[in-house]
Amino acid sequence: MTITFDNSWARDLPGTYLRVPPDPAPAPRLLMLNRPLAADLGLTLTDDQARDWFSGASLPPGADPIAQAYAGHQFGGFSPQLGDGRAHLLGEVVTPDGRRFDIQLKGSGKTPFSRGGDGKAAIGPMLREVLVSEFMAAMDVPTTRALAVVATGQEIWRETKLPGAVLARVAASHLRVGTFQFFAARGEQDKVKALADHAIARHYPDLASAENPYLAFLDAVITRQAALIARWMGLGFIHGVMNTDNMAISGETIDYGPCAFMEAYAPGTVFSSIDHQGRYAYANQPLILGWNLARLAETLVPLLDPSQEKAIEIANDRLSGIAPRYRADWLAVMRRKLGLLGEDPGDASLADDLLPAMQGADWTLTFRRLADVTALRPLFPDFTAMEAWLPRWRARAGDGAAERLSQANPAVIPRNHKVEDALTAATSGDMAPFQALLSAIRAPFTETEPYMLPAPTGFGQYVTYCGT
Predict the structure, then answer these.
(1) What pLDDT digit, counting tens, does each position of 161-202 carry?
(2) What tens digit of pLDDT does each residue of 206-238 get?
(3) 0.85 exceeded by the pTM?
(4) Which member of 23, 64, 84, 245 is catalytic?
(5) 165 forms bridges with which residues in the sheet?
(6) 206 annotated active-site
């Protein structure tokens, strides 16, 4: 089958990208093709087509590969030019029901934005993105998806020599807060407006007729991002690099680099090897949500009102509403995780008081086992506070709570030790552990015991890397 590309970004947003072809993989080998996702996109791909088209070995007909420009605040410091340093947007596909998605290659070679990097990726980080994004999709969390991973037959150097790979990523778009920052920092307000118009048309078409479409756009992005981060927090997910270039305007989770899921609850948990100050620790993610959205608002100020003073006042008013909006979203997530029906004025304190009580206990299994104290108790280093909290929860949850808990809380998550086992085996050529883990996390509410249990004693402090 031939993929039909539309390439609206390349057509409608000149000056926001550079045309550059991906590097051809010397000896491509298909490692994974996400057939359910391909079917959802309306694509019927042979293995040979996926191998060649998603490795750079050949281009699918109609592809117009580009590297997008963007800037970003990385760990709080502004980098005025980042851009796709190892990625190529092949184009966009429109599904049979009218949805539009990017298909982008990641790890596909150098671009003018590579900043001294080799533009490549290793098998391990690309397969990690598959595992985590497929779990997110199974949990109905907005996310980019992995369509395929192809080994290139080329070795790359990181800490050691590793086999290379390319990921084909599907996204509602790759438009980021950092894309707006790139052009705002250059004073190219016409391009900021063009980006906003493109985003509204693509992601928020109902806003085009709003009295102030750019203010409505800011509101819509805030709404989606607050809901997204609340979902992350409910799953114990730590993104690791919440830079503004990794905040998608679509409201999807993007860039699964140094990410992982918290096991023992500790609000200061950090997994990224480069987050030395804990800026993106688990408990800080809601704060960074507001910080990043403030950076977006800064770029939109000239579009909000002809008077700069009035525009800033409008933007600040919207930003002041982020914390309560997030809090409401988080509480809704917690009500579901706690198996609560309806709303009660005491729900906030019930959820808040649970957190210190479960310090050191497994985040995922605690919620799953709340109704079974015999199974719950062994998760806790000290059960005293939890024992005092549980009667409050039982009184509020009422009948049927056990079933609601099992429907809301996954039994299986991408446990860090299982992810590492799968990636280590895959790097050595054995894909069986990866495939088994992928099957388990695609059915996260099924109690598949080998994938439910926390890391064994001695697994140690888990550290993840960005892969570049």
Answers:
(1) 999 999 999 999 999 999 999 999 999 999 999 999 999 999
(2) 999 999 999 999 999 999 999 999 999 999 999
(3) yes
(4) 245
(5) 151
(6) no
